[in-house]
Write a structure and sequence with these properties.
There is one protein chain. This protein is mainly beta. It contains 2 helices and 25 strands. It is globular and about 55 Å long.
Length: 268
């Protein structure tokens, strides 16, 4: 099957913190209890990891949160996000959630996020490369591909902002659709800031949305896989689709990578 790539001639760079076009909420996610877990400081690292694994949880990072995972061993990684998880930031914990007419929690307004044109927002720092566990956050689906996951409003830093010889990934999506990543700063990943491996369930780029992010300093100058190098902002792998739009890419080996085999992406 011939590869089909959809893209415009020029990618549009925008400032993180603009209004987001939210996809229709997953009905399955709406009917969950939607517990809200607030992460307020460094003492909450264990609470964060536990909450992210639980289906339907809304995790809010406070504006001053800066969590370093350097001291954790390989067994802590990757951090798997449960279905229907929202991982976001808030400028204030007093912000009220958005609800549908039936009272179900949809999430929190993007205007309330701590990451704005005037504030960098909270940070999660991976720490050093772990040879056997190269992924930081993962979204993995088996059987049912609908993830219902939203990630937005904070910084996600990898092992190094310089050139690397290892293939770490900030966010990796396996076999899932209904994922949105927005208003993020993602940097320091030798493999890719975001890698999409939805490999079959996806049939249209709209099912994975990556937008309004600042993705930079993902570099891999060392020879890798037959003389090639890595270090991508977003990597869309074999049989995968994603819509990538309104992002700023800077100091990456390549902004966007695709396998060229039976896949497509849209870039605006």
């Amino acid at each position: 099957m011939k590869a089909v790539l959809f893209f415009s001639a020029v990618a549009v760079a925008v400032v993180a913190g603009t209004a987001h076009a939210q996809p229709d909420p997953n009905p399955r996610c709406l009917f969950l209890e939607r517990p809200v877990v607030d992460i307020r400081g460094t003492a909450d690292l264990d609470n964060l990891m536990t909450a992210l694994s639980q289906e339907g949880t809304i995790v809010r990072l406070g504006p001053d949160v800066d969590l370093d995972f350097s001291h954790l061993g390989d067994s802590a990684f990757p951090i798997q996000l449960g279905r229907c998880v929202i991982l976001t930031s808030v400028a204030s914990f007093d912000v009220r959630p958005e609800r549908d007419p039936a009272g179900h929690i949809l999430g929190f307004p993007s205007a309330a996020e701590a990451r704005t044109p005037h504030s960098r927002g909270p940070a999660l720092r991976h720490g050093p490369h772990r040879a056997e566990k190269p992924n930081f956050l993962t979204i993995s689906c088996e059987g049912d591909p609908i993830a219902g996951v939203r990630i937005s409003g904070f910084r996600l830093y990898g092992p190094s902002l310089g050139g690397q010889s290892t293939d770490n990934y900030g966010i990796r999506i396996y076999g899932c659709i209904d994922v949105e990543i927005s208003n993020m700063e993602i940097a320091g990943w030798g493999g890719a800031g975001i890698r999409v491996d939805n490999g079959g369930p996806s049939t249209h780029p709209q099912e994975i949305l990556i937008h309004d992010n600042f993705i930079h300093h993902n570099q891999h100058p060392a020879h890798w896989y037959g003389g090639h190098t890595g270090g991508y902002g977003v990597e869309v792998s074999w049989l995968s689709w994603a819509k990538i739009y309104q992002n700023v890419f800077d100091f990456n080996r390549h902004a966007i990578a695709a396998s060229g085999e039976r896949l497509a992406y849209e870039e605006f």
